[in-house]
Amino acid sequence: MPWDLDDKDVCEYKVDPSNPDSIPKFVDELPVPKVLQPTKVLKSGAYYEVKMQQTKQRLHKYFPKTTVWGYNGTYPGPTIETLKDRPVMIKWMNCLPNKHFLPIDRTLHAAIDSPEVRTVVHLHGARVSPDSDGHPEAWFTQGYRERGPSFSREVYKYPNNQQAATLWYHDHALGITRLNVYSGLAGFYIIRDQLELRLNLPSGKYEIPLLIQDRTFNEDGSLFYPDGPAQPIPGASPSVVPIFFGNTILVNGKVWPYLNVEPRKYRFRLLNGSNSRTYTLRLSNGQKFYQIGTDGGLMETPVELDTLTIMPAERADVIINFSGSKHQNIILTNEDTDENTRNVMQFRVVLPLSDKDTSTIPETLYPLRHLDQNMAVKVRNLSIDTVIDRYGRPLFLLNNKMWDDPVSETPEFGSIEIWNLINLTAFPHPIHVHLVQFQVLDRIPFDVQHYRDTGEIKFTGEPVQPRASENGWKDTIMATPGEVTRIIMKFDGYTGDYVWHCHILEHEDYDMMRPLRVIKSYNT
Ligand code: C2O
Ligand code: CU
Ligand code: CU
Known about the structure:
Helices cover 6% and strands 37% of the residues. It is mainly beta. The protein is globular, with a radius of gyration of 22 Å. The site of CU-O-CU linkage has 10 residues, from β6 and β30.
């Protein structure tokens, strides 16, 4: 077995970054992204400047350095931390080269005539005004020289007027989001509040964010991203692929890292930052863990779990108690048939307890205001379907509409709506709505063929309650195949132009994204 070797042995062992079987696992310590200090603190809030830069980083001890893109030149980007209601301003600056190092599909509309390297930053899960949301057409190039049609400001304002939560910022440029995020443009953004601080959860060095992503490498250690499906597409080369799965797993920018831990409780903020891959996580010793938070913040009560499924962009705040696992090496595993991607990272319970563990897993965490179905003024039926494009490629669509089609989701400011996510395809899609946090009502099996024929929903079974791990504020939800996933949300905070989309980035870029316009209420 290539792993468990010490340095001397590995020197004799040929590591080929393109062959995951040859890559020793758990030889790099897990990095924890640095917390970014503000450039200045103004009366109006903390002001940051963040540069997107190309850099070279060692992603595995035995790899040559890999060219990546990073916020402030690091992948993952620095973590931004703030208290609730304390405004943050960020000047996002594009200092990237003019050429992309990954293959661009020029058949995707925005990529036809726009500059090749364009960026825009979205703070995923945040309630912000439209001009700071990172609209896909608010992109800009190096030095803001060229700007997309929706560009309106250089400095984004984040009021942080929402409950404590694990958010993340990432690129959102139209048509190349999958490439920009894959290159490394992602980071954590953590909002804290007094209520949470009073709960005495594991904190400080015992609170660690984990960004989980899959990647594939070329032999020379550079990032590999397909320039099209295995079967080349005439007229579309390079071409977008319908889905992408990497053959290695990185956590916080290291391939299969390990973390030395003390025999005590730790809080991990899990984020699936992968393009397409869904993870079903489990601890190799069978140990249970506790989920305390979802996308939008802490849950009402902790949930005891032995497995946890997270789709791209979903977050889960969990506590693992290592106190009964002294001297064990525990692997965070992923349910998978592949030997390699079955591993995520390793916890080694080898550190001495530096102090008594006084942190707790409180029985009740945070009050949750359940949105009432009877208060909904509108129910929208939104299909998820696939067609074939003019090159013979699959094209996934929301409500059979392309990105460029006129806006159809126009909720009134302050109103509560129920969205029926009607998945007609054969697999799940992580559906994300900007601006809001929503709740999952249930999932109801329906007759797919009947819907195709008539456009009517015929339910074929009883509603299935959301999974325990979904009982809280969500901004991204698994829309399961053959079921209507019903979500409820209130369009609060701002009016204006946002988006909603599938968070499989290969789908989002082509064309599984739709405008969302929150309009002024007629009654006020
Ligand atoms: Cu995390 Cu619109 O995206
Ligand atoms: Cu978002
Ligand atoms: Cu999708």
